[in-house]
Each structure stands twice: as C-alpha cells, then as structure tokens.
Amino acid sequence: MDKEKYAKLEQKISPKPPLLKNVIKAFLVGGTICLIAQFIALFYMTFFNFTERTASNPTVATMIFISMLLTGFGVYKKIGQVGGAGGAVPITGFGNAVVSAAIEHKSEGFVLGVGSNIFKLAGSVIVFGVFSAFLVALVKTILVKMGVVSW
Amino acid sequence: MTIRQVIMMLCVLLLLTGCIPNEFKFENHTDEDASKAEELLKKDNRVKGVAALFHDDHLLIGIRVKTFSRFNKREIAREIEKKLKEEYPDLSVFVSADSKILTETNKLILKDDEKGLKKKIHQLISLAEEET
Hints:
The structure holds two protein chains of two kinds. Helices cover about 75% and strands about 0% of the residues of chain A. Chain A is an all-alpha fold. The termini of chain A are far apart. Chain B is of the alpha/beta class. Helices cover about 50% and strands about 20% of the residues of chain B. Chain B has five helices and four strands; from the N terminus they run H-E-H-E-E-H-E-H-H. In chain B, strands 1-2-3-4 form a four-stranded mixed beta sheet, with helices on both faces. The mean pLDDT of chain B is about 80. The interface of A and B includes residues 51 and 55 of A.
C-alpha cells in the first residue's frame, strides 16, 4: 500500500469531527472566560483607582493567576476538554501552559527540570505574542495615519 | 458544580448588571450657562450618557458613547472637548469617554458636597491621563 492510498483509506475510516459543535463549544467557553474577566475589570474599576485603560493589566494578571490555580487543581484540563480552543486562546491558556509544563517536569528536579522546561509550551506563545504584537502595532499605526481609528 | 447551577448563576449576574442607566446629568456650581453644553451633548447622536460637573474654573465631563462608536471614543471625546473649549473659554474643560470618569463624576454629583471637590477633580483628571 502506498502513501496516497493509505491517506485515502485513513480519511475514509476516521470519524468526522463535529466541527460546528466544537466551534459553538469553543465560543461559549471562551466567551464565558472573557465575561468573567470583564467582571474582574469592572471590580478593579469600581473599587480601585483604575480606569478602563489601566484596569486591563491587573485583570490579565488575575486571570492568569486563577487559571494557574485551576491547572494545579486539575480543573482546567476539563475546561480544555470541553472548550478546546475556547480554553486555550484566552490569556488563561497561557497560565495553563506554563504550570502544566512545570508540573510535568517536577520529577526531574527544580533547576534542570522545572527551570528549563517551564516555558517549553509557553515559550512559543511569548515568541509569537511579541511578533503578533509587532504586526498589530504596525497595522494600527497605518490605520491611525490613514485616520480610520484613533489611538 | 453542575451545568445548571452555572447557567443559573450567569442569568442572575446578567440580570443584575443589565440595567445601568444611560442619562444626561448636569450639575452647575458656577454662574456659567450650562444649557449650551447640554444642547451640544444632546444633539450628538453618538453619545448616550453624560455626567457633567461645573465647579469653580473646571468643567469635568464623562461621556458614554454608543456601542459601535466605542472604537472612536477617544476621538469623540477630544472633538467634544474642543467644541466645549470654544463655548467656555474661561473654564478648563476636560472630557473623557472612560467609564471610570463617568461613574466617578456621577458620584461627585450625587454626593453634592463642595468641600474638597476641586482636589477630587484634579485627581480624576490625572487618573484619566495615565497611560498604562
């Protein structure tokens, strides 16, 4: 059996993923996470001296902290199973990636295990995060120069 | 926690947060004419809520813009500020589309206490100008 034949066979036999269902699930889970974050931002704005613009920093920190706790307790795994990308794309997915890698490599020691592997998954997030931030800033600069949006 | 409990909790939260009033509030402690600002802001159909406080030589205004104008809310605030500066050359005008400024201005209006008001206004302005 050659490669092409095998690929055809594999496609025929393997079950089709319920695409629409997954999309809806991801939308709901991701939306719920963002809704919670919105409430946290509102909390920081109501009870502390944060404006709409400055409240985003402590909100992100709080969301990462919560997701790290949930990862440690093993709850985030279940959220990820249901939500898929809805649990991975928001900033909580970043906290999950950091802590799950740390837990996985704990047995190899704290320096060479945890220390060198903690950013095994999240390292790519940082690299592409910085890169996409650069791209977005570029696009926004152009849009501002054209007068479509304001800073 | 079952899914039913989660849905119930979300419903309650959404119901509680659903009704934030959008209104136009004006409080005048000076002898300037507030109706000019009122007319200008009510005419602007991108704005759906205003809290304006005239005090001493300050005019502090928090605005809430309509949902789809939010992308340009800072530009709208700047535009309104420019117009108001022309209307009130004697006052130092500050307009912000930040919801924090709106709620805090509303609080100052409701409190109706002129003592230390100027300090609070200065505080709010410096808060709104913070970048990060």
